[in-house]
Amino acid sequence: MTGQRTFWRAQARAEELPVDLPGTAVRFGSRAGVRRVLAADVTARLAAEARAAGTGLSDLLLAATAVAVAAWQGGNELTVALAAPGRNGPPGHDVDVTRTVGWFQYFYPLRLRLGRPSTLPRLAGELRAQIGAVPMHGLGHGLLTHAHPDPAVREEMARSAGPQVSFNYLGEIGSWDRQPAARVLRPSAHPSGTAQDPAGRWPYLLDIAGELREGRLRFVAHHGTGLHRTATVDGLMDEIVRLLDGGAR
After folding, report:
1. How far apart are alpha carbons 23 and 228 in whole angstroms?
2. Does residue 63 contact residue 127 with C-beta atoms inside 8 Å?
3. Tens-digit pLDDT profile for residues 66-90
4. Rounded to 5 degrees, what are φ and ψ at 32?
């Protein structure tokens, strides 16, 4: 585990996300969302392009997001917090989660090098390779930061400049009726209440989340209204859509 420190040092953020307003933190109660929904035929075309390039819709959305945000920052790299499913244990270690419920997830930082690929699918493939090279699917970062027995290692990891942007692709949503549990359980239509404490702090300035629902790619950018104007994030989302639609940088 300690041998991963060199890798994680290299993921420290070196860029700054521009802000519109002099806020200092993003609170759940002050977040706003800007949404985009692609047409079914556009989504189908993107999925075909992704398959031809050996990637997926998530890779294309990440590539478009990285290009748009990096250009906004004035550079050619983006340090992003990538979401990963927390129900998978470290490679080679079986973790029994059969008696647990709920959504398990963790984030890890990755400094994406965008280079100069000529098309978005090609860049998506390169980013997929960068993600595939992350040791232990990113679990090592959290273990070093929070569970390493040496306090100096934990402190070093905690001091590292973390991402200001997070990315989370939820996959295909709405396939509940095809799951084995659908024989005995049904999703409730009743309100579940507030999911987060409005005063709670979200560690990222910009949060991009995507999903495939009813054959259409949908994604949202959450931002803190004390740091970014909605019009600014709206323009960023337009640029992501343009990149997805054109496929070229």
Report:
1. 9
2. yes
3. 999 999 999 999 999 999 987 776 6
4. -125, 155
Q: What are phi and psi of 36, to 5 degrees?
A: -135, 145
Q: Over the chain (249 residues), what is each successive 10-residue block's mean pLDDT?
A: 89 94 88 96 95 95 97 95 82 75 88 89 95 93 93 92 95 74 78 86 95 95 95 98 77
Number of continuous H segments (helices) and E segments (strands) in the chain: 7, 8
Token couple for 9: 């040092």
**Which region, left, alpha or beta, applies to residue 138 given φ > 0 means left and ψ of -120 to 50 means alpha?**
left
* SS3 (DSSP) at 5: helix
CA distance 159 to 152: 11
Which of 148, 82, 135 minimizes the C-alpha distance to 110?
Answer: 82
Q: In what order do the strands lie in the sheet with 206-213?
A: 31-37, 216-224, 206-213, 165-173, 77-85, 105-113
